[in-house]
TrEMBL record:
Lineage, highest ranks first: unclassified sequences, metagenomes, ecological metagenomes
GO BP term, example: methylation
Keyword Methyltransferase (UniProt): yes
Protein's recorded name: DNA (cytosine-5-)-methyltransferase
Keywords: Methyltransferase, Transferase
GO molecular function, one term: methyltransferase activity
Length: 90
């Protein structure tokens, strides 16, 4: 039986790794994550068990690989969320 390569993911703006976790649960391999927030990188590496790198996205340009790569990104939502804008609502 022929085996299929496991899809690999690089998470850009990875935050705590919650988007990566969904891909991980779906059978993808997480190669790593990048973010410009130190606390998020610490959470990502502990939660996802993949390398995280503190980097400014403007300085990051992935090089061509000899395999397909899926790049995902979840931009921060904390500053834009309308949830619980009034104290003690939830």
């Amino acid at each position: 039986m022929q085996t299929m390569d496991i899809p690999r993911v690089l998470d850009i703006c990875c935050g705590g790794g919650y988007l990566s976790k969904g891909f991980q649960d779906a059978g993808f391999e997480i190669d790593g994550g990048v973010d410009n927030w130190r606390t998020a990188i610490r959470t990502f590496t502990k939660y996802i068990k993949a390398p995280g790198k503190l980097i400014d996205i403007n300085d990051f340009f992935p090089t061509k690989k000899d395999y397909d790569i899926i790049i995902v990104g979840a931009t921060p939502c904390q500053d834009f969320s309308r949830v619980n804008t009034k104290r003690n609502v939830f």
